[in-house]
Specification:
six-stranded antiparallel sheet, 21 strands, binds adenosine-5'-triphosphate, alpha+beta, single chain, 441 residues, six-stranded mixed sheet, Rossmann fold, OB fold (Dihydrolipoamide Acetyltransferase, E2P), elongated
């Protein structure tokens, strides 16, 4: 069981305290997302778990181990970053192998390179200059040979023929050396075959085993991030840490990759802590979400809980898309908005008359066709036609913006003019009501 526990930790950079009295329990085998706006401290909390920053108070546990003061390499965690952090000069294979090698570094220190490895540079230029155009060169040389055999033996043909033979010879030698090298390597470094198997296993997980001998620069951003994932998984960490791993990718790829990452992690049952500021990504990938405000958690729950039952105004506004209308209770269950419009709440609340409230309304809960007790006049501000639906914004009297998703008669509403005044109906049964920061309904 590899659960994680932050117990009253405080982390600061110099005098600047990022989090204090911070507590969080992350159950074994879950993907838990730290979600919040930029600068709220989610990466700092992740770094405290990885061992990159040391809390000035409190404890961090991985399973039963108190890891607060352990160096990062002793924690059996692995991390993937926004910028992939792959070595550009190493092949994909070597990048993935790197972590495994580090973990065996003591044994490796005792190993020596074979004597001939220092001479391999003689062969390497052959690969370097001709590797890419090898088949083209061979084709050309074959033609040259035929010409040489059938026609006059000019200097050019003669020299190309010798070149051809020379290349084949070099290739045969280098192949032989490769083979010998591999056998020797296995004798000298018994873990080499094991590592090779593990690396390919990890690459197969992300479906990139056929790219093993390319360099990272020859792969797309999405592929590079999958390599980074496989490099993290190959060391079989107790905990996987992901710091905004999809932020550098375009929207379509982000969507594809988050599904893939989730299914890989879930298939391995690995406890994962994932940092993002993208709430859609958090909803899609997580088992649990900790919604951060500056330096503390506002709410911790499943994606469904934080979406359908926000406990605070911050969570209501941060999760999902919504508009916030501010007003005052003028009669039991009747709210007068700043611009003078009224909204009738569905239940009798005991919010005292005169209390200021915030109504958080999701666009799908405002209709132009289904009437409710709370009609409200709006002036159309923008219209975005998306085929099956229209996304609209409307202005209230005080210029507050109300968001609407119009699915019924979408084509008709798409033709309306900006500036037209229409009546929208708020579904107050699905409206979140807050007094101050706390949700009351
Ligand atoms: P983002 O999503 O932008 O990465 P975040 O929520 O992960 O933000 P952190 O990176 O944890 O936020 O930063 C929290 C606060 O600590 C920020 O105000 C940031 O400026 C500050 N901070 C982060 N790293 C350092 C550092 N090395 N030295 C000083 N202050 C730092």
């Amino acid at each position: 069981m590899v659960s994680i526990k932050y117990e009253n930790i405080g982390v600061a950079y110099g005098d600047f305290i990022v989090v204090q009295n911070f507590n969080l329990d992350i159950p074994h085998g879950t993907i838990t997302t730290l979600l919040g706006p930029s600068g709220c401290g989610k990466t700092t909390v992740l770094r405290a778990l990885a061992g990159f920053v040391e809390p000035f108070e409190g404890n961090v546990f991985i399973g039963d181990n108190n890891v607060t003061l352990l160096p990062p390499q002793k924690r059996n965690t692995a991390m993937i970053f926004q910028n992939y952090a792959l070595w550009p000069h190493l092949t994909i294979f070597k990048n993935v192998e790197y972590g495994l090698k580090l973990r065996e570094s003591d044994e490796l220190a005792a190993l020596k390179s074979p004597w001939y490895s220092r001479f391999l540079w003689v062969i390497k230029p052959y690969y370097f200059f001709l590797g890419k155009t090898h088949s083209k060169a061979l084709e050309y040389l074959k033609e040259a040979k035929e010409e040489y055999c059938s026609e006059k033996k000019g200097i050019l043909q003669l020299s190309t023929w010798y070149l051809f033979i020379g290349f084949r010879w070099l290739k045969a030698i280098s192949k032989g050396i490769d083979h010998y090298h591999r056998e020797k390597k296995e004798q000298v470094d018994p873990k080499w075959a094991y590592r090779r198997e593990k690396v390919f296993e990890a690459l197969r997980l992300v479906h990139l085993e056929d790219q093993a001998f390319k360099n990272p620069t020859q792969l797309s951003g999405g592929q590079q991030q999958r390599i980074a994932l496989s490099r993290s998984l190959v060391v079989e960490p107790d905990v996987l840490l992901c710091d905004e791993p999809l932020s550098n990718l375009d929207a379509k790829l982000r969507k594809e990759l988050r599904t893939e990452i989730r299914s890989i992690i879930k298939s391995l049952g690995m406890t994962t802590v994932y940092v993002t500021h993208d709430q859609t990504e958090a909803l899609a990938i997580s088992d649990r979400i900790a919604v951060f405000n500056i330096g503390f958690i506002e709410q911790y729950g499943t994606p469904t809980e934080v979406f359908t039952d926000p406990h605070t105004l911050f969570v209501g506004q941060f999760i999902g898309i919504s508009s916030t209308l501010v007003g005052k209770i003028i009669k039991p269950s009747l709210v007068e908005l700043v611009g003078g419009e009224t909204v009738k709440l569905q239940v009798k609340t005991d919010i005292p008359v005169g209390e200021e409230v915030s109504l958080v309304i999701r666009p799908e809960n405002v209709s132009l066709t289904t009437k409710s007790d709370s009609p409200i006049e709006i002036e159309i501000n923008t219209i975005e036609y998306l085929g099956t639906e229209v996304k609209m914004t409307g202005k209230l009297k005080d210029d507050t913006i109300l968001l609407l998703d119009v699915a019924e008669r979408a084509h008709e509403y798409a033709q309306m003019k900006v500036g037209t005044k229409i009546t929208a109906y708020i579904n107050t049964a699905e409206t979140f009501v807050f007094v101050g920061a706390d949700r009351v309904y």
